[in-house]
């Protein structure tokens, strides 16, 4: 699992993150068809093989199914399963680094929720 929004990640991971965020936002619900490999590649200026790799990860993780000759579709429960996996990854991997940075900078909860930090 990877963190959403990591600009240093390989392209296929960033594409996967883009699709994951769309599923989590509800842009693609259970039963919805994802854009074709070629369409997503064109939209993001990516190689179709790179998009296919991102889609393969979703299939391997059980979030989507391929209907031969038709396309790729979001499976029931995919958003909940994806959200749980992303939460677990965030808590185990991302949050400790964020917490370390917060401590290093001497921030507290009030400062973090204040939109006018200088």
Task: List the defining traits of the structure above.
118 residues; elongated; mainly alpha
What is the average of the pLDDT values? 89
Runs in which pLDDT lies below 50 for 5 or more consecutive residues are 1-5
Q: How many strands?
A: 2
Task: Write down the overall geometry.
Answer: elongated
For the termini, the CA-CA separation is: 34 Å
What does this structure look like?
- Mean pLDDT is 89; it is low at 1-5.
- The chain has 118 residues and is mostly helical.
- The relative contact order is 0.14.
- The chain contains 5 helices and 2 strands.
- The protein is elongated and about 55 Å long.
- Strands 1-2 form a two-stranded antiparallel sheet.
Question: What's this, in brief?
Answer:
The protein has helices at 11-25, 37-44, 48-60, 78-105, 109-113; strands at residues 64-67, 71-74.
What's the topology here?
Elements lengths: L10 H15 L11 H8 L3 H13 L3 E4 L3 E4 L3 H28 L3 H5 L5
Antiparallel strand pairs: 1-2
Helix pairs in contact: 1-3, 2-3
